[in-house]
Amino acid sequence: MEIDQKREIRFNEETMATVQKIIKRYPEGREKSALIPILHIAQAEFDGWLSPATMDYVASILNIQPIEVYEVASFYSMFNLNPVGKCLIEVCRTSSCWLMGAEDVVRHIEKKLNIHVGETTADGQFTLKTVECLGSCGTAPMMQVGHEYHENLTLEKVDELLNKWKAEGKRSRYC
Amino acid sequence: MGKKLLLEHVDVPGINTLSVYRQKGGYASVEKALKTMTPEAVVEEVKTSGLRGRGGAGFPTGMKWSFLAKPAGVPRYLVCNADESEPGTFKDRYLMEKIPHLLIEGMITASYALGARTSYIYIRGEYFYVAQILEKAIAEAYEAGLLGKNIFNSGFDHDCYVQVGAGAYICGEETALLESLEGKRGNPRIKPPFPAVAGLYGCPTVVNNVETIAAVVPIVNHGGAAYAAIGVGKSTGTKLISASGHIKKPGVYEIELGVPVEEFIYSDEYCGGIINDRKLKAVVAGGSSVPILPADLILKTAAGEPRLMSYESLADGGFASGTMLGSGGFIVMDETASVVKNLYTFTRFYHHESCGQCSPCREGTGWMEKIMHKILDGDGTMNDIELLWDIQAKIEGKTICPLGDAAAWPVASAIRHFRSEFEEYVRRGHSIKDVKHYYSTKGIPEPAYS
Ligand SMILES: Cc1cc2nc3c(=O)[nH]c(=O)nc-3n(C[C@H](O)[C@H](O)[C@H](O)COP(=O)(O)O)c2cc1C
Ligand code: SF4
Ligand code: FES
Questions:
Q1: Residue ranges for chain B with pLDDT beneath 50
Q2: Closest ligand by atom to B87 CA
Q3: E strand spans, B257-310
Q4: Is B85 in contact with A133 (Cβ distance < 8 A)?
Q5: Cα–Cα distances in Å, from B81 out to B119, B219, B246, B328?
Q6: Mean pLDDT over all residues of chain A?
Q7: B352 interface with A at CB cutoff 8 Å
Q8: CA separation (Å) from B72 to B61, B108, B111, B362?
Q9: Domain assignment present for A3
Q10: Is residue A155 scored above 50 in pLDDT?
Q11: What is the chain B residue with the closest CA to A103?
């Protein structure tokens, strides 16, 4: 995928107001607590991943060293340190989902999109990942797309969703 | 019908809104505690109730609260553990999504008991939509004067905030959670000091599970003794069980502690039996970390007594023939399931989630995943089974946090109770090739697809 680093990394006023509100949730001198929530917002605003420029920007907002942001961003699985497609599909692969057929769901998506897990389609539309238990074990198998949970999956249901998302050029987002 | 204390009103339309929740008696515990009880009296009721932590360890909540240090002039915090990442567990999600005000009410009442002016609900990042439901409930509570300054004219002020995580099972471990809440990597801290003395920002802190905090509401409303009268022995009250796997009716059930396991699996009130009436093979009774048990040992103890859904009964027989209630993540496997393959998903999980601070856990979980993969791929040897046993034994008890134990126990129990299945994999070798799909984020090469 093309990496577009030319765009300006800066929150608009409205987002900045949200960020400032989040920072106020923590005691004075403990503003760093807001780091993870702000990284989520930054990732959503700036193409679904955290580039070094984005992380440096977040560091400047919180008045901390860039390394303090890098070490956190690299620890948590929801932060993407590389570009991802517009629509990030995350299929749960742990026990209950596996018992209910998660492997078949993954294989099916791989074939349908012609990519392997961890890859992005050539048009930059879809990235496929597997993740660990997302707390939907009773409605397994499941996948997450941004903040949407898609549960009780069947291969037909997956087809339907993929076709729809392809047609509408879906973007997945958490925030 | 068993008694319901938490989910009694869960099906009432609009129960997620403040107005309906209050019509059903919501926030009575806050009013009662703030207007008629001292904080110490609330702690006493919780002690009397016998409530034990619902996050997995089962530590008595009243006792935990009474350990909280109270140095003058230092703020104290209540932190709710809504990280819920233990495979097989989804009860906290259900509770927060359906009846968010129950958690907020518990947060206020518990904070009053602990003298916490501020509380945080740390929720896993993947539950983003649930976090929004909580934010909305909190906004309603502020609007109604149930949060903020001088609640019920009692002089008690309280602020409650939601903080989202970003995908890390280890952040469910309470000290890792506090690190994460401080904006750092989720590396567990060495204990002592315990959070009760030095927790969030170095201040005295209580960390409790969502369900534990919610249970404070009925305890304050009806009294600790009434709560203690429910359940069996030292397993008092009700417990939310997340039931999944090969059962007819997966879902979240509130049970009175002490229900027989057999009734829980087969009765229509709960799981409704096994899919297609196949035979029960094995159960992981308390989330991925607890020992797996074969059908005969989950239904009856080694002594032949019916096994009950309680802390004591599930643990009966120790690890030789028992397991643990844990977080209540009840995963059922029928005769078509492969215990070996299920274990592979667990070893992969723990390797993925190890924070990497201690070498036995960081290296051991990786080795176990690789060996499991090798066995499933048909390349295993009998010696690999011994090696797995050896590795798990060298992790257990030798790490900073209990994730190491949690990674070791499933391996030990699967070999203990299902050794012949491992041997079968080894014997059949390449005719098995039981890895349809394989991917590791930690650099283990992906095998070729067939
Ligand atoms: C690796 C690991 C993961 C944990 N995950 C959770 C979790 O997701 N939710 C939870 O409430 N407790 C979890 N715990 C237990 C917490 O450390 C802590 O004991 C609990 O939050 C205390 O609350 P309780 O006394 O109300 O159960 C975990 C522990 C470990 C070692
Ligand atoms: S046991 Fe594992 S998860 Fe826990 S601190 Fe050590 S390396 Fe980290
Ligand atoms: S195992 Fe997939 S959501 Fe829990």
A1: 1, 437-450
A2: 3
A3: 280-284, 292-294
A4: yes
A5: 11, 19, 29, 15
A6: 94
A7: yes
A8: 23, 21, 17, 41
A9: no
A10: yes
A11: B437
**Number of C-beta neighbours around residue A112 at 10 A:** 16
Cα of B259 from ligand 1 centre, angstroms: 24
Cα–Cα distance for residue pair B1/B269, rounded to 1 Å:
8
Question: For residue B82, how far is the Cα from the chain centroid?
Answer: 9
Residue where one domain finishes, among candidates A21, A54, A75: A75
Q: Is B448 helix (H, G, I), strand (E, B) or coil?
A: coil
pLDDT in tens, A48-100: 999 999 999 999 999 999 999 999 999 999 999 999 999 999 999 999 999 89
- Percent of chain B past pLDDT 70, that is, above it, reads 95
Structural domain boundaries, residue A138? 87-168
In a domain, A173, yes or no: no
The predicted structure's pLDDT at residue B197: 98
Q: Tell me the per-residue pLDDT of B288-336, one tens digit each, with 9 for 90 and over.
A: 999 999 999 999 999 999 999 999 999 999 999 999 999 999 999 999 9
The closest-lying atom of ligand 3 relative to the alpha carbon of residue A133 is 4
Q: Where are the domains of chain B?
A: 18-229, 234-334, 339-442
Q: How far is the CA of A106 from the centre of ligand 1 (A)?
A: 30
Distance CA B126, CA B167 (A): 7
User: Which overall architecture, per CATH, does domain B18-229 show?
Assistant: 3-Layer(aba) Sandwich (3.40)
Identify the pLDDT of residue B441. Answer: 34
Most ligand 3 atoms within 8 A of CB, residue of A90, A129, A133 to mutate: A133
The CA-to-CA distance between both ends of chain A, in Å, stands at 23
- Taking CB atoms and an 8 Å limit, are B84 and A116 in contact across chains? no
Size of interface A-B (CB pairs under 8 A): 160
Q: Is the sign of the CA dihedral A35, A74, B449, A103 positive or negative?
A: negative
Residues A129-149: pLDDT tens digits? 999 999 999 999 999 999 999
Interface predicted TM-score (ipTM) of this complex, two decimals: 0.96
CB contact (8 A) between residue B436 and residue A116: no
Write down the pLDDT at residue B429.
80
Q: For residue B406, which ligand has an atom nearest its CA?
A: 1
Decide: pTM greater than 0.80: yes
pLDDT of residue B440: 37
Q: How many residues does chain B have?
A: 450
pLDDT digits (tens, 9 = 90+) for B349-382: 999 999 999 999 999 999 999 999 999 888 899 9
Measure in Å the smallest separation between the Cα of A76 and chain B Cα atoms: 5
Secondary structure of chain A: what % helix, strand, coil (to 5)?
45, 10, 45
- CA B14, distance to chain mean position in Å, is 27
- B339-442: what fold? de novo design (two linked rop proteins) (1.20.1440)
Coil vs helix vs strand at A90 = strand
Which residues have a Cβ under 8 Å from the Cβ of A7 and sit 6 or more positions away?
A: A46, A47
